Amino acid sequence: MAKGFTDEDDALLTELGVEVEVKKQLSRTPREERIIAGFEELLRFADEHGRPPQHGEDRDIFERLYAVRLDQIRQLQECRDLLGPLDEHGLLTDTPPPSASDSDDLDDDALLAELGVEVARSPLTELKHVRSTAEKKAADEVGNREKCEDFATFKPLFEQVQKELDSGLRETRPFEMKAEIEKGRFFIVSGQKAYVADKGETITNEQGRTDARLRVIFDNGTESNMLMRSLQRALNKDDAGRRITDPSAGPLFSDQTIDGDEASGTIYVLRSKSDHPLVAENRDLVHKIGVTNMSVEKRIAGAHLQPTFLMANVEVVATYELYNINRTKLENLIHRIFEPARLEIEIMDRFGRPVIPREWFLAPIFAIKDAVERIKDGTISGYVYDPKQARLVSVS
User: Fold this and answer.
1) Cβ-Cβ contacts under 8 Å for 201 (sequence gap 6 or more)
2) Tally of domains within the chain
3) 342 lies in which domain range?
4) Which H or E run contains 73?
5) pLDDT digits (tens, 9 = 90+) for 260-319
6) Could you tell me if 270 and 388 lie in one domain?
7) How many alpha carbons lie under 13 Å from residue 140 in its C-beta half-sphere?
8) Do residues 48 and 39 make contact, with C-beta atoms less than 8 angstroms apart?
9) Any idea where the Bacteriophage T5 Orf172 DNA-binding domain is (predicted)?
10) Domain check: are 201 and 295 in the same one?
11) In the 8-state DSSP scheme, what is residue 57?
12) pTM reported for the whole predicted model
């Protein structure tokens, strides 16, 4: 009987034609389970595409990652022995002679990282005060820093990146692969922002892997000329290691699109035609600011039947097309800016129930347009909306 099911459950499933599978419990180490999980992703890729993942600049970044993982698996005899029975697509048949030097210098976690498999440590088995050779090496390489004599050149870059993080133009996400380490990119490692100011020529190390010498500037005014693989190991070892994304490619708000831009919605600013006394007395100041992934015309259709539109028709005051940006986060950002001017109003819906809409604000249109422009240029984090002055003011 399948675990978690009663006899009645199994009988019902049988009646429905659903086979109840009883899985045999295999005795595998956690390390083997993680290697198998990584290989199953390669099998799914082969299922979908009818071929193994391949290298090449014209390939999708994830396919290239899978291709690297498959190369590593093919080189390691222990992996081929473990995964052979699962290899329904023959992914392991094109196997180069195994090279002992490829794995001899890697501990278990480093080996799994090379295979692209996330390492999850158990708090019951982890030795709190004992570090592997690879971990010590990575820590030493990251810690080998010196004062950055021209830090004044880089300080404005770190300040701008922080503003763009605050405004949503950049985000942080888990570090995934070495190919992300390029000149001009930002990372978070050991709790500090790191900027790759320069990247030297690509070299091949003793294990036959590509590498390059970097100049990495840290936001505490230090720098290091570490190797690219050293930074990779440090980011993989750091549970909080992150990649700071580049600013969204293409315009955030524009009437023109650029090849490769992905439309992600529209910001709209509306003026209500409601005869509610509070609205009527402040007609030119009361604005709804929202974001939609459909056409604005379709979004406001039937506005007079919807409490969110104050049960009245509306006039479109301004729209801004969004490209390559999370529209929900952007909407939340704009609403936070104008929170001091949020309109407190209660409307009765069609059934006589009270509703309090949350997207209406007592703010002039020029202040809203000013906020949009400052979001575009990344300076919005330095401003707040002052209802008394009816404009954005600098926090400084």
Assistant:
1) 212
2) 3
3) 263-394
4) helix 61-75
5) 455 578 889 999 999 999 999 999 999 999 888 888 999 999 999 999 999 999 999 988
6) yes
7) 7
8) no
9) 281-375
10) no
11) T
12) 0.39
